[in-house]
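Bumping my old thread because nobody answered last time. Still need a sequence for this structure:
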């Protein structure tokens, strides 16, 4: 890719002319920050004191700090109990993810009540350090008190349409960690590909992970004839979940059922298809397939619960996303078993067949030992059915008509997460220039538009505690390469991260714009690709961001 060599060349130029203290401004903006005029210079050997904590997570945070310091300034960290230059202190009065960070001329003091808080202090410190390697490293003195606005600060990656691979997922997790995002919503199944090994149903990946076109057909574009294939083994999944855990990111898998399931139907038509007598293939097109699961077949329900049983030990967190968006009911309307099932539940709304399917899954979940139970998340179309069939503790992820849908979910007593399609779908074009690479939208999801979305606007106080947070989503219909993924993600991911972390009354686009411009050396030092629009005022490199 041309873009990477360009990136390195620019980084080289910046290195040559960078001032003595070349720090970035912190993103997301802390709740409270005051800078003073002094500086702290890291010695060749810096002593660090670390409090005892159950488990070794703080030690892990210090290990990360140690390797970053060594890389950026040559400084070696040495553990010490007294008179340390860098002091980590437990302060149990702080919320779990909060931290205080004090940099004085004599040293650095960090307080937090949990490893996550220390980790976030470290992310802020990282941004205060020179992005480029410098010996010795000098940083400005500063006093920060910081705590996130929301507990859920997410990013969703669709790897059903296109799969980017383990190395790229790790890079994405690194980006998330830098900006203090803490939920990786992994969309692993689609009409166009099933991407996770399920041992009880091997054909899901033997058949469902391969299709006969790399690009997805859309409008006048026909599919190509290339074989396109890929999935994650359960060992891969464990590796990614562990990598994310080290960065205080919980991985939330999404198995999108009973719609968006054409790849699964192609693998097991005898169980899942409404019309098993017809041929079924992994889809080669964009859009919403009508080839949904036959929810009236008890074997299909059993297959769903079997799959979920395999997911639970792989993803040891509280939430499981079962999709629920864009599920056409056409095939149910012409299927005798589906018609009879709808009759039997006393409804004439075919959406209720979908909710009855979830009700059975929820019942299966409720019967598990507490440690294995997961709370369910659904896209907001589920609100079009009789949600009284579903557990009260389900969460609605609001994407279409997001503000209204989230409010409706909250009114019905459910928690909700804001992922507004416009402007938080950061796979959409970020600039209207005709040279912008082909993706969804018209270029109106600019960095500024993404930044300026106001979460929880006009939400009544009595519903406020139902709002868990915000999330950026990335759909990969048009996006095939890691370079293009990163180009669209960055820097817009940072804008969503700030909405998730920083109090609304402290957010201001022109201030953010100034701060994000100081992050260019960090993006370059990590060799991440990114949209240049916010940095250059002109989209000079867009044309190079093609998919091949
Ligand atoms: C969605 O964008 N279909 C959730």
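Sorry it took so long. Here it is:
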């Amino acid at each position: 890719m041309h873009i990477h060599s360009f990136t390195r060349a620019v980084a080289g130029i910046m290195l040559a002319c960078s001032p003595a203290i070349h720090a970035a401004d912190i993103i997301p903006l802390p709740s409270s920050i005051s800078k003073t005029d002094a500086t702290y210079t890291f010695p060749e050997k810096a002593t660090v004191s670390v409090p005892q904590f159950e488990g070794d997570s703080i030690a892990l945070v210090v290990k990360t700090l140690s390797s970053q310091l060594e890389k950026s300034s040559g400084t070696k960290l040495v553990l010490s109990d007294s008179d340390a230059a860098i002091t980590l202190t437990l302060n149990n009065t702080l919320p779990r993810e909060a931290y205080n960070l004090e940099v004085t001329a004599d040293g650095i003091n960090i307080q937090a009540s949990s490893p996550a808080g220390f980790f976030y202090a470290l992310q802020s410190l990282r941004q205060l350090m020179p992005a480029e390697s410098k010996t010795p490293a000098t940083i400005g003195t500063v006093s920060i008190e910081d705590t996130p606005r929301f507990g859920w600060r997410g990013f969703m990656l669709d790897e059903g349409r296109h799969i980017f691979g383990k190395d790229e997922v790790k890079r994405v997790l690194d980006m998330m960690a830098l900006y203090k995002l803490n939920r990786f919503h992994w969309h692993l199944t689609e009409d166009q590909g099933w991407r996770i090994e399920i041992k009880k149903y091997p054909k899901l990946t033997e058949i469902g992970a391969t299709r006969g076109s790399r690009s997805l057909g859309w409008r006048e574009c026909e599919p190509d004839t290339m074989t396109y294939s890929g999935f994650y083994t359960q060992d891969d999944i464990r590796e990614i979940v562990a990598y994310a855990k080290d960065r205080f990111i919980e991985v939330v898998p999404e198995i999108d059922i009973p719609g968006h399931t054409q790849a699964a139907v192609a693998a097991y038509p005898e169980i899942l298809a409404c019309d098993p007598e017809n041929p079924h293939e992994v889809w080669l097109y964009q859009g919403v397939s009508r080839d949904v699961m036959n929810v009236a077949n008890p074997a299909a329900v059993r297959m769903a619960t079997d799959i979920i049983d395999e997911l639970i030990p792989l993803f040891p967190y509280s939430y499981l996303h079962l999709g629920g968006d864009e599920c056409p009911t056409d095939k149910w309307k012409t299927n005798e078993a589906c018609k009879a099932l709808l009759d039997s539940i006393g409804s004439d709304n075919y959406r209720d067949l979908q909710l009855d399917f979830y009700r059975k899954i929820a019942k299966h979940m409720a019967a598990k030992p507490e440690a294995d139970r997961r709370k369910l998340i659904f896209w907001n179309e589920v609100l079009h059915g009789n949600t009284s069939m579903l557990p009260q503790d389900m969460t609605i992820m609001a994407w279409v008509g997001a503000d209204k849908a989230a409010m409706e979910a909250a009114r019905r007593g459910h928690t909700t997460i804001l992922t507004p399609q416009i402007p938080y779908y950061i796979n959409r074009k970020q600039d209207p220039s005709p040279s912008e690479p082909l993706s969804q939208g018209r270029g109106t999801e600019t960095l500024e538009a993404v930044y300026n979305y106001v979460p929880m606007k006009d939400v009544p106080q009595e519903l406020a505690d139902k709002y868990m947070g915000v999330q950026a989503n990335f759909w990969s219909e048009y996006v095939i390469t890691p370079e293009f993924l990163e180009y669209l993600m960055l820097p817009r991911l940072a804008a969503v991260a700030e909405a998730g972390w920083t109090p609304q009354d402290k957010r201001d686009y022109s201030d953010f714009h100034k701060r994000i411009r100081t992050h260019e050396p960090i993006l370059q030092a990590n060799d991440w690709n990114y949209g240049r629009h916010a940095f250059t005022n002109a989209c000079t490199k867009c044309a190079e961001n093609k998919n091949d």
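The two ends are 8 Å apart (CA to CA). Let me know if any region looks off to you.
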